[in-house]
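Look at one record.

>
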Amino acid sequence: MSAQKKYFGTDGIRNRVGKGMIRPDQILKLGWATGKVLKANGQKRVMIGKDTRISGYMFESALEAGFIAAGIDVLLLGPMPTPAIAYLTQTLHADAGIVISASHNPHHDNGIKFFSADGKKISDDLELAVEAAFEEEMEVVPSHELGKARRVDDAQGRYIEFCKSTYTGKAKLDGLKIVLDCANGATYHVAPSVFEELGAEVVAIGVNPDGVNINQGCGATDLKALQEKVIAEKADLGIAFDGDGDRVMMVDHLGEILDGDDVLYILACANRGKIEGVVGTVMSNLGLELAIKEMGIDFTRASVGDRYVMEQLTANAWQFGSEPSGHVLCLDKISTGDGIVAALQVMSAVTDQQSTLHELKQGMKKLPNVLKNIVVEKRADITSNGALNKMIAEVEKELGQEGRVLIRASGTEPLIRVMVEGMDFGLVEACAERLSAVVQTEFS
């Protein structure tokens, strides 16, 4: 791709509500611009879903108006997980799916994600075409060509049945007590039903969204409440989703955390002999790579972002990939990352092997890893900073062959992420502190 995108980031468009593109007037025009591009391609129907943050109502109305002004029909789903929109876009034969969500971010942020008709994230070329249309003056189609809108009343039930159909365990979940943390987000009215209908005893937390408590002290980005509830309830395990339901993190009966690396390891073990390889990212723990290769399975690293994991999986015709943050792709089940579906694949391994979650993760030994997030005022070019490059070289020399450094700017938040990995935790932590201090000085 030669052209530089102006508005789209690694995962759609995202910002604080009222800033940049995330204003109702801009979102209205974005809906129109997207509709104009779709209509030029002979496409005429889109689906819109959202998570539970309060600004979703405002942006849903703005997008709806923009698409209708461009002559595009709109199907409104209301609050639904991001992967549900991807799935329903395919099954209801829409030409595109749009999600109003800022995923794991706080309520004061929001964003727009796009899916193509086949339930995958739209191409760079289509994003560029939308940006080009956005720069044009908005023109409303003649009245008789305006789009129409209607709500889809059975979306929730359709998605629940789909999720249940992906569970392949030989036994149901009877006898298992599971704590679900739905992050006061888009899975709150879906996930408990899925696991209950498969036989589990469900204790649900984070299921009372009020528009501003999404991801607030709960969900996949803050596991303390889940850990405490699992211990208090003497549950077999806990499962946490993020605000829009495309991430999953898990907790075993001892309260120990399983991230996306652990989930990918369990899925690889359960499918040993059936798969050639899996995809992680540059953030994946070296222990995962070593454990996967020890099983005779190929392991490839992609850039950070589930779209890049998807690219590697597609190129290799593989099924499973993940990010440590909890994006897990099971392409034999669904076209995008899906927290509920990924959790169900792990539950299939639990029941088929009659093992606990704690036992299933034991074959992978993670190397000590420290990740620090440094808040910066704006996106920065970290590759050409002399002071930082000098410190990176010093740290890499100290860590030797059994350690690594990764410093990258977040694609979705004003952060620079500093990751250090190695054999000795004390050295790793000290190196991370030194690198973070340089980043703080140079970029904050």
Observations:
- The chain has a mean pLDDT of 95.
- The radius of gyration is 22 Å.
- The CA atoms of residues 376 and 414 lie 6 Å apart.
